[in-house]
Structure formats: structure tokens, C-alpha cells
Amino acid sequence: MDPDRYGPSWQRNALAPGFLGALALIVAQLLLETEWFGTLRFVIAVLALIVGWFAFQARQWWWVPVMLAIAVAWNPVLPFDIAGPVWVGAHWVTALAMLTAAALIKAPRDDDRG
């Protein structure tokens, strides 16, 4: 049986949530002083946890604490009172981290094609 016949032997489960998280972080900068920012904090925290879970499943443990830190820093339940250029810079650095994780986290494909 030809292994290349059915596509790649790796899957990137964190790709979509990582890209969506980076997009949410960029959009959140535009809405920092609005009521929508709380909703975006929730979205960012959840997407970071999803990417962290996919990293855990792919056994790429080094991404798990990074994603947990993002989820804690952007949590809407007990929000940190950070403002100014540090907070804007944190959005950009975190968006870059989410994009990097999305591109690098991959796991072997589990197909039962027999």
C-alpha cells in the first residue's frame, strides 16, 4: 500500500484555532476600550486552551505552559489590569506565539484505513 496515496502522514489540529486566536488578538487591539473586549478576551482564552490541548495531544509539551499563560493573561473572569503600550505589545507577541504554535504543532495521523 502506498503511504503517500492518502495524503500527508501528519495532521495540524492547532492550525485553525491558532490562526483564529491570532486574528482575535489583532482585532482586540482595535476594541480595547469597548465592551466587546471582554468577549474577545473570552475567545482568546478559549482558543489558547484549545491550542494547548492539541499541543498536549501531539506531545509537544513546551507549548502547553505558553498557552496556559495566554489563557490566564486574557481570562475574562479575573482580568489583569494592564493598559498602555505594554498591553498592545503583548497582543502582538501573543499573536506571533499563536501563529508559531499553529504552524509547528503537528501529530501523526491516526487513520484506520487498513
TrEMBL record:
> What residue intervals traverse the membrane?
12-32, 38-56, 61-80, 86-105
Q: What is this protein called?
A: Uncharacterized protein
Which top-level group of life is the source organism from?
Bacteria
What would be one Pfam family of this protein?
DUF6804
Keywords, sorted A to Z: Membrane, Transmembrane, Transmembrane helix
